Amino acid sequence: MAPTFETGPTLAGELKKALESSEAERKKENEKSKSDPLTGYLLFDKNKDGIQKLIDDMNFSNDVRRHKTGAVMVVFCDLNDFKPINDKYGHPVGDDALRVFADRLAKAETRTTESVYRKGGDEFILVLPIDNDQEITDSLLEKIMNDLRGRVNNDFNFDAEGDIISMSASMGYSVIRKGEQKSLDELVSEADKKMYEDKKSSGKGR
C-alpha cells in the first residue's frame, strides 16, 4: 500500500483566511468609526446615508420596500443647563451626564434598536420610523412626542459627585410622510428650530 501523507493548509486556503480576517477587521473598524467613543451610540454625521435610505425606502413600491414605514420622525434633543454642570464639576462629570442622557433617550424610545444618534456636544437626534398600519395624523405625532418627552424628563435625576441634580431635555420634531420630498438636512433644521422654541418656552438655558 502506498504511504499516505497529511497535508497542511494550502496556500490558497491560508490566503482566503487572511483576506476574510482582514475584511472582518476593516468592517469592525468602519463600524467603530461610525460610533461615538464617549456614549457608544451612533454619530449622526457619520450615518446620514443610512438614515436617508430609511426615508427613501418609504417611496419604493411595496414589493421592494425593506420596511413598512409610513412616516419618519426626526427628534432634536438638547440637554438643558449642561454648561453649568461642566463649569462646576468638570468635564469628567459632564461626560457622565451625557452618557446618562444618551441611555435615557435609548430607553425612552424602544421601537428601533438604532434610533439614537449623537449630533455633537449635548445634542442628540432620534430617528423614529412610524408603521403605515395607522393613520399618521398631527394628533398622533403630538402624542408620540409628548409620551417621549415625559419618559425622558419625568424623574430625570443625575448624581454629580453626591449632588442630586434635576435634569431635563428640550425637544423638537419634524416629520416626513410617504410621498413627501424633504432632505434629511431640512428635517433636522426644522426639528432644531422647534427644539429652540421648546427651550425658550420652558425658560431653560443652553
Descriptive overview:
A 5-stranded mixed beta sheet has the order 1-3-4-2-7, sandwiched between helices. A two-stranded antiparallel sheet has the order 5-6. It contains 6 helices and 7 strands. Helix 3 runs antiparallel to helix 4. Strand 5 (157-160) and strand 6 form a beta hairpin. Helix content is 46%, strand content 21%. It is an alpha+beta fold and 206 residues long. It has helices at 11-33, 48-57, 82-89, 91-108, 138-153, 184-202, and strands spanning 42-43, 69-79, 116-120, 123-131, 157-160, 163-166, 169-177.
What is the compact description of this entry?
By secondary structure, the protein is an alpha+beta fold. The protein is built from 6 helices and 7 strands, in the order H-E-H-E-H-H-E-E-H-E-E-E-H.
Topology:
Layout: H1 11-33, E1 42-43, H2 48-57, E2 69-79, H3 82-89, H4 91-108, E3 116-120, E4 123-131, H5 138-153, E5 157-160, E6 163-166, E7 169-177, H6 184-202
Parallel strand pairs: 1-3
Antiparallel strand pairs: 2-4, 2-7, 3-4, 5-6
Helix pairs in contact: 3-4
What labels would you give this structure?
five-stranded mixed beta sheet; single chain; 46% helix; alpha+beta; 206 residues; two-stranded antiparallel ribbon
Envelope shape: flat
Largest sheet: 5 strands, mixed
Number of beta strands: 7
- Residue-averaged pLDDT, rounded? 84
